[in-house]
């Protein structure tokens, strides 16, 4: 059963996340892919994560397909105008990549090329609208496509965002644009996610809750201090310190 069928049937879907290499050596990614094969329903492939130059998400997704895994290709609007976004989406479909996670993207100033200019011709909602338009058989200007692509579209959400109502408003926009599932930032407070899920119970969407395995109390504190939208409760940090 693929990711789309698992999610739409109400099953418990599990995904992993992998970042393409800063270079062309995919041996480590292939090793990781073989390690999780049969244990996850799909694998997210990041798109120039943290605005750092790497092999593209499309390239990484193709490698995962070769390893027999179902990829979720992330695509941001930071580095592409609407022509490039459409081209990337069409290329993905042509290669057999149907799962797409639309993101606006981090600003280039935080990455390893801070002098780079962000494009931001499209945000995540626009990218979802674009994929939906392509799946109708036309490009954004109404020109007919040769072959119609299929996509299973997703987007991101941050349950810890304050005020959370703004995130829910964005979720509704993304849903109207074509998003069928959402993936959250890492969540470590069960009460937070329970409250969030209660607030969106009337929305016809599926949510995959993110979890990043914590290696140490120091890592947890670092995430609290440096990663927006993530908070590890003090009681968890204290338990890790005592372990």
Description:
The protein is an alpha/beta fold and 243 residues long. The chain has two domains: 3-211, TIM Barrel; 215-243, no CATH class. Helix content is 38%, strand content 15%. It is built from nine helices and seven strands, in the order H-E-H-E-H-E-H-E-H-E-H-E-H-E-H-H. The chain has a seven-stranded parallel beta sheet with strand order 1-2-3-4-5-6-7. Helix 3 (57-66) links the parallel strand 2 (42-45) and strand 3. Helix 4 (82-94) packs across helix 5, helix 5 runs parallel beside helix 6 and helix 8 (217-226) packs antiparallel against helix 9 (234-242). The protein is globular, with a radius of gyration of 18 Å.
Key phrases:
alpha/beta; 9 helices; 243 residues; seven-stranded parallel beta sheet; single chain; globular; TIM Barrel
């Amino acid at each position: 059963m693929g990711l789309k069928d698992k999610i739409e049937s109400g099953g418990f879907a599990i995904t992993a996340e992998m970042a393409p290499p800063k270079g062309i050596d995919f041996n480590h990614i292939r090793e990781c892919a073989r390690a999780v094969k049969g244990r996850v329903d799909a694998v997210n492939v990041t798109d120039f994560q943290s605005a750092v130059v790497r092999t593209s998400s499309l390239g990484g997704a193709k490698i995962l397909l070769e390893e027999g895994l179902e990829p979720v290709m992330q695509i941001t609007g930071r580095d592409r105008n609407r022509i490039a976004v459409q081209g990337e989406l069409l290329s993905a479909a042509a290669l057999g990549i149907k799962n797409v996670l639309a993101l606006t993207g981090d600003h280039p100033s935080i990455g390893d090329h801070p002098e780079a200019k962000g494009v931001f011709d499209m945000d995540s909602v626009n990218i979802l609208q674009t994929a939906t338009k392509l799946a109708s058989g036309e490009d954004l200007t109404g020109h007919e496509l040769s072959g119609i692509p299929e996509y299973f579209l997703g987007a991101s959400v941050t349950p810890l965002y304050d005020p959370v109502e703004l995130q829910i408003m964005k979720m509704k926009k993304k849903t109207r644009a074509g998003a069928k599932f959402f993936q959250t930032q890492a969540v470590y407070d069960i009460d937070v996610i329970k409250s969030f899920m209660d607030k969106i119970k009337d929305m016809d969407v599926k949510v995959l809750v993110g979890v990043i395995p914590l290696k140490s109390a120091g890592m947890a504190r670092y995430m609290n201090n440096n990663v927006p939208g993530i908070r590890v409760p003090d009681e968890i940090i204290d338990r890790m310190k005592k372990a």
